[in-house]
Amino acid sequence: MSTPSVTPMRPFAGLATTASPMQAMMRTVSAVAKVTQTAGIEWADFAKQSVDHGTATLRKLAKARDPKSVLVIQAEFLKGSYERIGAQTRTLGDLYSGLAGDLLRHPGGSAASQITKA
Description:
By secondary structure, this protein is an all-alpha fold.
């Protein structure tokens, strides 16, 4: 009676043929660093827009002559701020979820390609 042939499982076999574990780790670290840099740039742009939006609102408030116009200006400010923070949240969420998805698909892989597209 012959025993069936069993192929041993090698979960990291593909990684060894494409890159060493150190190279894979360095690609991952590089991808995370690029995403973090991109997020920092996004936050800096958001902060600048916030200051500009606040300054413009203060100028409008200084010119307001009655309480009704003050309330309208404040409502516009709050609505604009809400829309901008929503857009910022979506942008950063897409950035980090793209990184996470790419790292899960390609361990130590090509998250940098996602960043250059963004």
